[in-house]
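User: I'm putting together a small comparison set for a docking exercise, and I want a reference complex before I start. The sequence is below, and the ligand is 4'-deoxy-4'-aminopyridoxal-5'-phosphate. Could you produce the 3D structure with the ligand included, as structure tokens?
Assistant: Of course. I'll restate your input first, then give the structure tokens for the complex.
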Amino acid sequence: RSMSSVSIPPPECMLRPLEVPLRYLFGPGPSNVPPRVLAAGGRPIIGHLQPEMYEIMSDIKKGIQYAFQTENNMTISVSGSGHAAMECAVFNVVEPGESVLITVNGIWGERVAEIAERMGANVHRLLKAPGEYYTNKEIEQAIEKHKPVLFFLAHGESSAGLCHPVDGFGDICRKHNCLFLVDTVASLGAAPIFMDKQKIDILYTGSQKALNAPPGTAPISFNDRACNKMFNRKTKPVSYFFDMTHLSNYWGCDGSPTRAYHHTGPVSGFFALRESLAILAERGLEESWRKHKEVAAYLYKGLEDLGLKLFIPDKVRQLKIGLKELRLPSVTTISIPEGYDWREMLTYIMKNHHMEMTGGLGPSVGMVMRIGLMGYNCEKTNADKALHALADALKNCKKSKP
Ligand code: PMP
């Protein structure tokens, strides 16, 4: 037998056509992708370093600036999912040994804490039960104590269904020379966020939630304070791929007349992202926020009518901020009803209704079930479908059956 002969045959599965079921994606993401965005992603590929592509990237940058409500020049989309943006933020602004303060009231803070620990930061966690929130006073005291260079908050804590108030934290961070990093992967387009007005130094999101693009691109923006820190480092960031000195050049944000090859961007992903940002721009942020709020309120009422209990209390009074809504309109968490196995309910709903809902994540596993109605999926008719499926599961999955 010659060295060049093939000894591993073509796999059987590869000789069968691809099958992808049609499903209602009513979990915390990915969400269903509208035909217009799917079609954009299906357009012919062009080279990633061609002027037409630069123009599309420039459009994406403007679309993100609108969605984030920022004028930051350093606004790009990271090639990767939400986690890529998390690593990009932390790797670029933090150096080994520096102090970082992270709110952990669900899984996302814990993930950022682990990312920061892996690159050698001195991580301080502000630990709370899933769905609990932090007062401005608590944050200020922790910042005074730990003197962090970076403070992290998840705006949309999707594992708990919490939409955390942001007002005031930016001022506290500025006063103490700390950068304010906010995760809006699950909330962008669904709940108001104003990067510049709320003095957020670094903001990121993902493509696959309320933006309704396929997973795989992650918008991120850095203001001048963040740029000042990340471009005056003593050490190089631990990651070559996420190094903003390279990414800012690739995205035409560094003032240089030429762009050097760094990596091959996800061309189809950028087409789809551009289309989803275009839909948001056409619709308008305010209308998108209003719609999410309206449909979420309709869903809450329907859930309560089914006898289900929402995991997050609807409103709390925060010192100096007034009455604040705490529920995340894009992802609703329900306490698991007594006498039911949540896994069985979710399997039942998938099998009989072709609908994806999920359980908790990280610390909220076993505490909640999660329903997401985001962007394109955010319609009362879809809330009705989800409620119908839940009612059916409640009828058929009771543990103490006779
Ligand atoms: N942050 C939040 C709030 C999220 O909901 C998610 C996705 N569930 C992520 C970060 C991570 O994003 P990805 O799964 O795209 O890496």
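The two ends are 66 Å apart (CA to CA). The chain has a mean pLDDT of 96.
User: Thanks, that's exactly what I needed.
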